[in-house]
Write a structure and sequence with these properties.
Layout: E1 2-11, E2 14-24, E3 29-33, H1 40-48, E4 55-60, E5 63-64, H2 70-76, E6 78-81, H3 93-97, H4 107-116, H5 118-122, H6 133-145, E7 151-155, H7 163-180, E8 183-188, H8 191-197, E9 200-205, E10 208-214, H9 220-228
Parallel strand pairs: 3-8, 3-9, 6-7, 7-8
Antiparallel strand pairs: 1-2, 1-4, 4-5, 9-10
Helix pairs in contact: 7-8
Length: 229
């Protein structure tokens, strides 16, 4: 579904992602786990087109999207939930959900999102800024799903969210994958969330993927040790 080959990303002369290659197939949840400052957010911003890559190739469904601006990547099937969620605080929940929709609102899709996140229907007239952190995360995911993506990128979705809601989000992501056959790529620092959610897990360190395992083969203690370094 999505393939990244020899990607290099920098801020000026500072190279953050020196050379990265990986892929994720349809219906797979891929977790990219690493400490702060290891390049997770930079990678996701490059994948959605917020910052340019210096070299390498990003392929979505066999189409090269490396040079496309963000809005064309979204139109092509990539959706992005940024770190911190970035919902519109003064718009209602409903207005937030449809803020990225071009043309008529798909009521069937809206109903699916309300089924996945019932709180978004219950609070549809409430201002986004008045929701809890967990509710805002559900809103941000719902807003991304309204663009009908093939690939969903989530940057640190557990940040600032209480543990009980983290489990709900993990379950919802698996439900979304099963319902929509989406490819989901998650960046995280919380190993327990990644172990509960993902089919495949990679470890990022200083802009490089240094370990990759299927969920069934993951040595959690070794990854904990890598994250503690």
């Amino acid at each position: 579904m999505i393939s990244i080959t020899n990607l290099q990303v920098s801020y000026g002369q500072s190279v953050v992602i020196p050379d990265m290659s990986f892929s994720a197939s349809e219906g797979q949840i891929l977790g990219i786990i690493g400490r702060n400052g290891m390049g997770k957010s930079t990678l996701f911003r490059a994948l959605i087109g917020m910052i340019p890559s210096r070299s390498g190739k990003i392929t979505l469904k066999d189409k090269d999207i490396t040079g496309l601006p963000s809005h064309k990547r979204v139109a092509g099937g990539v959706a992005y939930v940024p770190q911190g969620r970035m919902i519109f605080p003064y718009l209602s929940v409903y207005e937030n959900l449809i803020s990225g929709v071009a043309g008529r609102v798909d009521r069937d899709l809206l109903g699916e999102i309300h089924s996945l996140f019932p709180v978004l229907q219950d609070m549809r007239n409430r201002k986004g800024g008045n929701l809890s952190g967990g509710q805002q995360q559900q809103l941000a995911i719902g807003r991304a799903l309204m663009t009908k993506p093939s690939v969903l990128l989530l940057d640190e979705p557990t940040e600032g969210i209480q543990p009980s809601i983290i489990k709900d989000i993990s379950r919802s992501l698996r439900d979304i994958r099963d319902l929509k056959k989406l490819t989901i790529i998650v960046s995280e620092q919380v190993l327990s969330f990644v172990l509960d959610t993902c089919d495949r897990i990679t470890v990022i360190d200083k802009g490089k993927l240094v370990r990759e395992d299927d969920r069934a083969n993951v040595d959690a203690e070794q990854i904990k040790a890598m994250l503690a370094v």
